[in-house]
Amino acid sequence: MRAYLPKYNLTTAKSLEHALQMMNDSKRPIAGGTDLMVLFDMGNLPPGDYVNIHRIPDLQGIEVNDDYVEIGALTTYSQLRQHEIIQQEFPCICEAAKVTGGVAIQNRGTIGGNIANASPAADTPPALLVYDADLKIVSATGEKIVAYENFHTGYKQMQLAKNELIQRIRLPRKNKHNLHYYRKVGTRKAQAISKLCMAGVANFTPEKIVQIKIALASVAPTVIRCKKTEAYFCEKQYAQIDICEAKRILQTEIAAIDDLRSTKEYRIQVACNLIQEFFDLITEENNE
Amino acid sequence: MEEKKNLSQKEISRRSFLKGAGIASVGAVIATTASVDIKADTKNDSDVIGKNGISCEFDVNGKKYAQKVPPRTTLAELLREDLNLTGTKVVCDRGACGACTVIVDGKSVCSCMTLAIDSAGKKIETIEGLANGDELHPLQEAFVNHDALQCGFCTPGMVMSCKNLLDHNAQPTLPEVRKAVSGNLCRCGTYPHVFKAVMDVSGKKGE
Ligand SMILES: Cc1cc2nc3c(=O)[nH]c(=O)nc-3n(C[C@H](O)[C@H](O)[C@H](O)COP(=O)(O)OP(=O)(O)OC[C@H]3O[C@@H](n4cnc5c(N)ncnc54)[C@H](O)[C@@H]3O)c2cc1C
Ligand code: FES
Ligand code: FES
């Protein structure tokens, strides 16, 4: 049932300072609303005071400098998809944006909202993990930088106090020449939350994999980097890599469960298949 | 044709009844919030939209509407209940079906999850804005010619998604058309006809 309207208030913030000041009075932010309005409609959104941050200029835009790309928290999936540097250097983010919702959701949903919603099944976070993103988080009293890898601390838990906002997502520009892999597995291409998704980047020579990063969603209480599996692939001659062993290690790192979208067995199997596919892609590229 | 007219008249009277019921419940909502100081949040700055909302100006299909909106009103509610533009349909009311798709400042959005106040001052296009009097928009005409609707409930949203595509990309490929309506669910399964209609308008004749 729909929520009881008089229990909600909403104020549109005219600036970042204004929003942060209101959040000190325990008001909760709403950006594109594509997560919160679903809860609202189902009657599951906690009643109270909300701040509409959607028009704040300081949270918008994508800035590119020599070493970093900085994405404003309010950047929509459509804006991400269309940005040239993101397309060229961070294709996993583009891919994630393309497979999120449908066009209308991509026009409204924001990257900041996706991060703060903290779903372990979200599609952009694995891409952010393999690109070593960090977050600039602001409050009325100051700011901090948190490595995205450390941001989610448990199911729906994160290093984000009630009075803080994510302002920017910063990506180091160091993956231009690497191989990128992204795949979402879901019921259908559009509008469906994934059963599982994986992002990967690899830097390799004809002899060996120098560096590889693998991140998965929907296999643990948070999105995760699979560092043990990564370590197994690294600095070995290709002939020494036993993909079955890699899959075994992967299974020790993930904690897939049964839920409404899929089963534990299916997720483990698919995670292994995706690792295989990524590795095959690397060897294929190598042979070309 | 004659029959169709009768049908739509009947439908209108049913809608006005529903709307009457809607107003009664809105009245109840206002009564419960009436104790809150209306001026509290709006006195200093017109950008700040507070508890009971302020008067906003909406530009829908080129027509200006002055409307006082409580901040939690969705764009779909504003269009349907306040402005009486019931062409925009609400099915799931949670962003999953695309029936409520409208175009705001050149981008398609689900009006059921977009707050009305966020669309104030922006250019809003709805299905009502497409036809010019009795003259259908080419896209609407193509939908009719290709039988691209059955029950028609998804159609306003479907047409707006297609218009949004054609506005940005006059010669889309078939995969681009499919992608454009991937967020619009049609339980009647009209998709192949929708694709043909859009390709027809783009001059590509339904490849
Ligand atoms: C039909 C449909 C399909 C979807 N498909 C997908 C999908 O395929 N993949 C996917 O990952 N998601 C999907 N989503 C979920 C949603 O669209 C995304 O999570 C989106 O990125 C949320 O962004 P938003 O701005 O709309 O968030 P909002 O709903 O505005 O906010 C979400 C949460 O983040 C907080 N928040 C927002 N911005 C900030 C900020 N800057 N700082 C701190 N906190 C903030 C809010 O308080 C709230 O708790 C879908 C949703 C719908 C309705
Ligand atoms: S009614 Fe808005 S998406 Fe279904
Ligand atoms: S025509 Fe009936 S739902 Fe699309």
Give the SSE order of chain A as H and E letters: EHEHEEEHHHHHHEEHEEEEEEEHHH
The total of beta strands of chain B comes to 5
Oligomer designation: heterodimer
Structural category of chain A? alpha+beta
- The total beta strand count of chain A reads 14
Query: What is the number of helices of chain B?
Result: 7
Ligand set? flavin-adenine dinucleotide, FE2/S2 (inorganic) cluster
Task: Return residue spans of chain A where pLDDT drops below 50 for at least 5 consecutive residues.
Answer: none
Distance between the termini of chain A: 57 Å
CATH domain fold name of the domain at 54-128 in chain B: Ubiquitin-like (UB roll)
Q: Kindly, what is the distance between the CA atoms of the first and last residues of chain B, rounded to a whole number of angstroms?
A: 31 Å
Protein name (chain A): Molybdopterin dehydrogenase
Keywords (chain A): FAD, Flavoprotein, Oxidoreductase
InterPro entries (chain A): CO_DH_flav_C (IPR005107), CO_DH_flav_C_dom_sf (IPR036683), Diverse_Substr_Oxidored (IPR051312), FAD-bd_PCMH (IPR016166), FAD-bd_PCMH-like_sf (IPR036318), FAD-bd_PCMH_sub1 (IPR016167), FAD-bd_PCMH_sub2 (IPR016169), Mopterin_DH_FAD-bd (IPR002346)
GO molecular function, one term (chain A): FAD binding
